[in-house]
Amino acid sequence: MIRLFVMDVDGTLTDGGVSFDSAGVESKRYHIQDGMGIKLLQAAGVRVAFLSGRHSDSTSARARDLGIDLCVQGVYDKLPVLRRWAEEMGISQDEVAYMGDDLPDLECLEWCGYGVVPCDGRPEALRLADYVTPSRAGAGAVRDACERILLRNRREGEGHKA
């Protein structure tokens, strides 16, 4: 059973694009269906976390909006954070799903029990995926991942393997 779903943000929860206005204020676009998928996971008892290589006020705001209390940003070496969260929660790596799309995500994708990559992720990440989403990053990929995790958990709860 997956008990923790951790995801990168840029290129996973977003399409990877970053906009700046004339004052230098950053903005990102989030897909509402991805948010619904996160809420469905949370309702099913799966903890959700953001682990991003860049710091962004937009990411912090989205985490607050979705009720995500595990949100670490500005970390290139992500695996130690992921391992610490699993240890603090008392869960094994097999109970951790990780979603990422690029080089900083490779160690996490290898380590976790269930690695997810958007279909437009980098080839290096796609090779490590247990599941490749049919939707692109920022356009429903996280919702695809959430629904797959829910299905997997339901099947494992019934004694089947997803």
From TrEMBL:
<dbReference type="Pfam" id="PF08282">
    <property type="entry name" value="Hydrolase_3"/>
</dbReference>
<comment type="subunit">
    <text>Homotetramer.</text>
</comment>
<feature type="binding site">
    <location>
        <position position="101"/>
    </location>
    <ligand>
        <name>Mg(2+)</name>
    </ligand>
</feature>
<dbReference type="InterPro" id="IPR010023">
    <property type="entry name" value="KdsC_fam"/>
</dbReference>
<keyword id="KW-0479">Metal-binding</keyword>
<keyword id="KW-0460">Magnesium</keyword>
<keyword id="KW-0378">Hydrolase</keyword>
<dbReference type="GO" id="GO:0008781">
    <property type="term" value="F:N-acylneuraminate cytidylyltransferase activity"/>
</dbReference>
<dbReference type="InterPro" id="IPR050793">
    <property type="entry name" value="CMP-NeuNAc_synthase"/>
</dbReference>
<dbReference type="InterPro" id="IPR036412">
    <property type="entry name" value="HAD-like_sf"/>
</dbReference>
<dbReference type="GO" id="GO:0016788">
    <property type="term" value="F:hydrolase activity, acting on ester bonds"/>
</dbReference>
<dbReference type="GO" id="GO:0046872">
    <property type="term" value="F:metal ion binding"/>
</dbReference>
<feature type="binding site">
    <location>
        <position position="10"/>
    </location>
    <ligand>
        <name>substrate</name>
    </ligand>
</feature>
<protein>
    <submittedName>
        <fullName>3-deoxy-D-manno-octulosonate 8-phosphate phosphatase, YrbI family</fullName>
    </submittedName>
</protein>
<comment type="similarity">
    <text>Belongs to the KdsC family.</text>
</comment>
<dbReference type="InterPro" id="IPR023214">
    <property type="entry name" value="HAD_sf"/>
</dbReference>
<feature type="binding site">
    <location>
        <position position="8"/>
    </location>
    <ligand>
        <name>Mg(2+)</name>
    </ligand>
</feature>
